[in-house]
Amino acid sequence: MKYYLIVGEASGDLHASHLMTALQQADPAAEFRFLGGDLMKAVGGTLVKHYKQMAYMGFVPVLLHLPEILRNLSQCKKDIRAWQPDVVIPVDYPGFNLKIARYVHHQLHIPVYYYISPKIWAWKEYRIKNIRRDVDELFSILPFETNFYEGKHHYPIHYVGNPTVDEVTAFRTAHANDNSFIDTHALPRRPIIALLPGSRRQEIKDNLPELMAAVTSFPDYQPVIAGAPGIEADYYRRYTKTANVKIVFEQTYALLQAAQAAVVTSGTATLETALLNVPQVVCYHTPLKKLIGFLKRKILTVRYISLVNLIADREVVKELVADGMSVESVRNELDRLLHDTDYIDRMREGYAEVTRRLGDAGAPKRAAEQIIKKLKNRKSVQ
After folding, report:
1. Average pLDDT, integer, range 350-371
2. Are 136 and 112 in contact (CB under 8 A)?
3. What is the tally of helices (H) and strands (E) in the chain?
4. For 171-358, CATH number?
5. Cα 195–chain centre separation
6. pLDDT tens digit string along 83-117?
7. Looking at residue 324, what is its pLDDT?
8. Which CATH fold would you assign to the domain 2-161+362-381?
9. CA gap 193, 287 in Å, rounded
10. Domain 2-161+362-381 shares a fold with domain 171-358
């Protein structure tokens, strides 16, 4: 069968590449065409456009690049119409993908099977009407989404497990008892504090200066920064105020495995850190802190921003966001993560609970099998 996938950022490229591999294993005749990235390209098929040419997030960047975004939408629609796939599989990235879903579903009458459901439970809940209207099947990777979509909105979804479990499990299996990180990177023999300041330039600019200021209060430890794909080391150095801080790329799991504690911006990284059992604090700096803090309390429909706390449905890790984040608050929380063993033990008990709720590895395989089964059933009744 012919599968058309659409992703808009690095995490989507990673998850979609694993889904494509699983689809190939279940359907040896699988053909792929996609808007995606290098990892998807490595699996096989035709890369139509790289996600780096599409990844505009936030009101101002979207407004500034609106003509290009509209061209991308138009080109994607034309390409799908010309190729006539058996299914279109959007992966997260709802601003773009829900527009494509509407066109594909109503104009081309091609089924839309959405992998990694949009996080409308956080905000923009009104998008449920678009999903109900334009998405044939929705595949979730977060266990609490079942209650949101099915319990609250009576829209059936498929929870297939979380692919991050697969990725971390594979890493830990391949690197069990690997203590070579410090030697590999020629680092001083001091314990490490991992800094994960975000995957976008604005996040790094906003978060990294305060994280660095907090970490310098612990001279017996060394900060190491996890570099994001496509962002050069010199960009980080603008905000570290020193050339001596190590920045590693494509080695986030190895860094976390070697770290004593981690300071993480919200996102999938918080879940990865938990699955690697590293004590963490979640931080997210915003301009106009007091205003954003007020709006967060009034607009967001969830109590937490980190996946760890959302999955546990309680505070497992401290979240320092907007007006809650400062050099002092990060420093105080780091002190607990490095020295308060009872606090660390309670956090790790929370991590174990999160792991249980996520379930076993195998999310891409389960999703692929369900996608193929539903497509075959659909064809049989046409």
Report:
1. 97
2. yes
3. 18, 13
4. 3.40.50.2000
5. 17
6. 999 999 999 999 899 999 999 999 999 999 999 99
7. 86
8. Rossmann fold (3.40.50)
9. 25
10. yes
